[in-house]
Amino acid sequence: MFDKIKAVITDNATSIVKAIRQLGTTHLGCTTHTIHLVQLLELQESTLKLAKSLENDPDHTARANGFSLNEKILSDEE
Predict the structure, then answer these.
(1) What is the residue-wise DSSP string for 21-64?
(2) What's CA 1's distance to the chain center, in Å?
(3) Which superkingdom, per the lineage (predicted)?
(4) How many CB atoms lie within 10 A of CB 25?
(5) Looking at per-residue confidence, does 59 or 76 come out higher?
(6) Among the listed residues 57, 62, 64, the one whose alpha carbon sits nearest the alpha carbon of residue 75
(7) Does the pLDDT at position 2 exceed 70?
(8) Which residues, 6 or more positions from 14, have their beta carbon under 8 angstroms from its beta carbon?
(9) How far apart are CA 39 and CA 19, in angstroms?
(10) Of 4, 35, 59, 60, which one has the fewest beta carbons inside 10 Å?
(11) Are 72 and 62 in contact (CB under 8 A)?
């Protein structure tokens, strides 16, 4: 039965790739799945970079709203 199968397309899970190779069949990684994984990694990295930049700049939100952090604190106390 497996002699008719020329190739199998799957995600790149190690266990699946190993099983397909043990069958003596060619494994092809799914390009769309790989692109999706790359996009997720990029999104995670850019989100982490943004979070770190905001962590290092606590006045960012106040400035984005048009005033400094000190002005915001003073106006909240009034």
Answers:
(1) HHTT-EEEE-HHHHHHHHHHHHHHHHHHHHHHHHHT-TTHHHHH
(2) 39
(3) Eukaryota
(4) 15
(5) 59
(6) 62
(7) no
(8) none
(9) 27
(10) 4
(11) yes
